[in-house]
Amino acid sequence: MVQMRPIIVRYGEIGLKSEFVRRKFEKKLISNIEDAFLRARIECSVVREHGRIFVYVDDIDGACKVLNKVFGIVSFSPAFECSSDKETLKKFGVELLANSFSGGESFAVRVKRTGKHEYTSQEAGAFIGEAILNAYADKNIHVDLKEPKVVLSVEIREKRAYFYLETIEGPLGMPLGSQGKVMGILSTKEHSILAHWLIMKRGCSLDLIYLEKENLEKENDKKGDDETLDTGLGNGLEKRLDVAKERKKKAYENAEKLRRWNPNMKIYDIEVKLGGDENFTKEDYACASEFAFKKGALALVSGETFEELTEKDRFEDNVADMPILFPLIGFSDEEMEKRMKDADLL
Can you give the residue range of the structural domain that contains 110? Predict the structure, then answer.
């Protein structure tokens, strides 16, 4: 049987909350982590300690891919666990760096400590570093605390110690579902999904609405297949339906990219009498907000940019019964592209 190794999971903003709120958010984050591993079919055991979450797994590579998609995680480190007594720490540090030196490298030992021990954090770093220097004296290695080539990090917590060589950045934000419920309008525009991703990153539970033209076939039957319809989409029923199907396919493909981050996200198809095209109208927003309100959402999310909003005056009247959020309103095209690449949304 393969022994399970710990991964140290760190969070940031959660730790600034009051004790009651922090515990609530920690439980939500742990629940999200466990759900993510369950979906990935990777066995895990999660342990919560003050300021840290430890995820024990036997598939480190698979686990890192899972944790990279869990909002609320600041960073995580695959680690090796041992006892916190002095001799074990020295021995473990030496063994862990057995394949790290080829000759002439610099290194440093970084120690964080919680609890009561016979040594301080600085003393622990010194005696572990000394043991490493003595063990690999033939490699001509040296200590460099400013710009080391190799960094050995150690977290000592009461009777246990955790050694690690890398820290992987997480997606940051708040645990998904820790904030209120919102609904986003699904669009064919690729950048629009970044708006929904940013809202989920703040912890909001998100479902999507796809707007479809109401009674498309009936309308065409009345006007006749050969009559030009004032939609900018071309003539006749067949062409209009093809365009509508292609638009919906593209929108749903965008949604699937979001589902990597929120597998439980729902998509609702609703019909609108007007609009239902590339650019949302005030009628679209009114219809979407009415539906979102019935579903218990606190706000509506749109992926439109500042330029798209100012193409025409769409908000001369109050068109929605709830706030409409525009997360992309301050983003340039370059910023959106970079964010989407970092979030694996392209």
Answer: 85-158
At 126, which CATH number? Answer: 3.30.2130.30
Pairing label, strands 160-164, 150-157: antiparallel
Residues 6+ apart with CB under 8 A from 284: 185, 211, 272, 274, 275, 276
DSSP label of 181 = E
Contacting residues for 195 by C-beta, under 8 A, at least 6 apart: 184, 301, 302, 303, 325, 326, 327, 328
pLDDT in tens, 225-270: 444 444 444 455 677 677 788 889 999 999 999 999 999 999 999 9
- Alpha-carbon distance of 235 to 270, in angstroms, equals 24
- In this structure, the answer to whether residues 65 and 104 fall within a common structural domain is no
Domain with residue 70: its CATH number is: 3.30.70.1510
- What digits encode the pLDDT tens for the residues 110-135? 999 999 999 999 999 999 999 999 99
pTM: 0.86
* CA pair distance 96, 90, nearest whole angstrom: 10
Helices 192-201 + 236-259 axis angle, to 10: 30
Q: Phi and psi of 107, rounded to 5°?
A: -150, 165
Domain shared by 214 and 297, yes or no:
yes
Asked if the structure places residue 172 within a domain, the reply is: no
